[in-house]
Design goal:
The protein is an alpha+beta fold. The chain has helices at about 1-45, 100, 130-135, 155-165, 195-210, 230-235; strands at about 70-75, 85-90, 110-115, 120-125, 140-145, 175-180, 215-220, 240-245, 265-270, 280-285, 315-325, 325-330, 340-345, 350-355, 360-365, 370-375, 375-380, 390, 395-405, 410-415, 420-425, 430-440, 440-445, 450-455, 460, 480-485, 490-495, 505-510, 515-520, 525-530, 530-535, 540.
Length: about 550
């Protein structure tokens, strides 16, 4: 009896254990199934939408450019080893004949893939797929740029992942570019960002793209490169693309006026290329790339529709008087790349004959059809002019009224840049009226009825007396002088009067002045630069 009961007891225990194990296995697999379903739902919720396009009102690149570049036709370009000629375009160039572009000495094109609108939503450029497909079909190598308005790193990474999804099926042979502009406009969602936050966003985008195996590039203007970005965090890790519109441009001028890293130069926004209606941005890259393979050869490439030409675009007919809210350019075509006919000021009126879905208005001006950005116009003819910042060459000027003279001698230029044309010279003792000053070191002056610019540090409100020289000859054999000099073209400033044993401290360019304090019969000059004594070959200097 004892053995029978004990056997029954063990049978019951084993049965209970089997039941618990079965129940445990059931709930384990149910949990895995639930997690799988949850994971699937999570993945489905993160599907990236890449086909949405936006209208002109929220496009951050639909801003009228104030700076005009120098005109050049692509036929003036030449092939130079180690360099490649290109353009950058977006939907604003309309329908492009890429076969004609290929025959116009264009090696590559940076095509806008998309942008984040001022409403915070990411949109694809209307013509992105068409431009990429047709450019590659014509044999033009392609890079892309994304126009960012990210306000934090999370948004910047989202923009990068969106870009990667859009381009994975394409042959992207030139870099993927991060382009963030417009942050100086109060209407921009990036207006309140500081240098640190703005740079962090750029790096988040570029690093995400780089990890996916693409070549990366950062775009900015020369006027903003040192004041709005921490370049030390970007350079060396990513290529640098600089925009500078100077009077002398590529190929006559090799590079922009920047001594740091520069891998590409956008040298004008007034290029003419056969196959593109109106003006286009011209770019030179200081490298040559070969055709790349798509990262995902199995990716679905969207079927691209043919863009509408300006003649195809539908304008709603109107007949009304309008004026500028502040002032706006009237152009030959509905694009900021086209030529300016005149500038409409607040209070002046023209007749609007059409309002387009492209963000532009069609106007009649002196029996000609012209175009202006609709948001810059108003039918309220009594509206007061909006206060506008005084910005020239990216520099903000503030009003100032005083009389100034040169500390010694200074060039007067037609723009606040050492690349500006010299229109006169101001000598010590001759006074001019100063009307404005910028924080970037330039003053605006009135000279013979025209506006000119001079470097502020070379000006004074009173005549600076030159110190008397007690000893005409210095101990090291230099004859003492006291004069301002600049480079005839450019020349190295060295820590010793020797080419072989010295170190280059700085490269002086034409228009940049330093003080010469000594001249030697051996052909060297002694100079003062940035608080230290340096030397340069005398024949390379001139005291203009």
């Amino acid at each position: 009896m004892y053995n029978v009961n004990q056997k029954r007891k063990w049978i019951i225990i084993v049965g209970v254990v089997i039941v618990f194990v079965a129940v445990g296995i059931f709930f384990f697999y149910k949990s895995i199934s639930h997690e799988d379903n949850t994971s699937d739902k999570k993945d489905n919720s993160q599907i990236i939408e890449t086909n949405q396009v936006g209208d002109a009102s929220i496009d951050p690149e639909n801003i009228d450019e104030q700076e005009e570049g120098t005109s050049i036709n692509s036929s003036q370009l030449n092939v130079q080893q180690g360099k490649s000629n290109g353009i950058d375009i977006s939907k604003w160039q309309g329908k492009i004949d890429w076969n004609k572009v290929k025959k116009s000495q264009i090696d590559f094109a940076y095509i806008r893939i998309g942008y984040r609108g001022e409403n915070g939503v990411i949109y694809k450029d209307d013509n992105a797929d068409y431009n990429i497909q047709q450019a590659q079909k014509a044999g033009i190598l392609v890079g892309v740029y994304f126009y960012s308005t990210a306000i934090n790193q999370k948004e910047a990474i989202e923009e990068a992942k969106w870009t990667l999804k859009c381009i994975e099926g394409y042959s992207i042979s030139y870099p993927v570019v991060y382009d963030c502009e417009g942050y100086k406009h109060a209407s921009s969602r990036t207006y309140k960002l500081g240098v640190k936050e703005r740079t962090a966003n750029a790096l988040s985008f570029l690093n995400t793209i780089s990890k996916a195996g693409y070549e990366t590039m950062f775009y900015t203007s020369l006027s903003d490169i040192e004041t709005h970005w921490n370049m030390k965090d970007i350079q060396g890790k990513h290529k640098i693309w600089i925009a500078q519109y100077s009077t002398k441009i590529y190929p006559q001028k090799a590079k922009p006026d920047y001594s740091g890293q520069c891998d590409a130069w956008q040298y004008t926004n007034k290029g003419q290329v056969n196959g593109i209606e109106g003006n286009v941005d011209m770019v030179v890259c200081y490298f040559e790339n070969k055709k790349a393979q798509p990262k995902n050869k199995n990716a679905d490439v969207p079927k691209a529709s043919v863009p509408l030409t300006d003649q195809d675009k539908i304008y709603s007919s109107v007949n009304e008087k309008v004026t500028a809210k502040s002032e706006t350019n009237l152009r030959t075509l509905a694009t900021t790349k086209s030529n300016i006919v005149t500038t409409l000021k607040n209070g002046e009126t023209v007749t609007r004959i059409g309002i387009g879905s492209n963000g532009w208005s069609k106007l009649r001006y002196k029996n000609k059809t012209v175009y202006a950005i609709t948001s810059y116009l108003t039918t309220d003819l009594s509206v007061k002019q909006e206060e506008k910042e005084d910005i020239v060459n990216g520099q903000k000027f503030e009003a100032k009224k005083d009389k100034v003279t040169a500390k010694d001698q200074v060039n007067l230029r037609d723009s606040p840049s050492t690349s500006g044309k010299v229109v006169g010279t101001l000598n010590s003792g001759d006074f001019l009226e100063r009307v404005a000053i910028s924080q970037n070191g330039w003053s605006r002056l009135q000279y013979k009825g025209q506006v000119v610019y001079a470097i502020t540090s070379y000006l004074s409100n009173e005549v600076i007396q030159k110190p008397q020289q007690d000893e005409p000859t210095q101990d090291d054999g230099f004859t003492t002088v006291n004069e301002k000099v600049t480079a005839k073209s450019e020349t190295n400033l060295r820590d010793k009067p020797s080419v072989d044993t010295s170190k280059v401290v700085y490269t002086l360019k034409n228009g940049e002045y330093v003080k010469r304090i000594g001249i030697h019969s051996n052909g060297w000059s002694k100079l003062e630069y940035n608080g230290q004594i340096v030397y340069a070959i005398s024949s390379y200097l001139v005291n203009e």
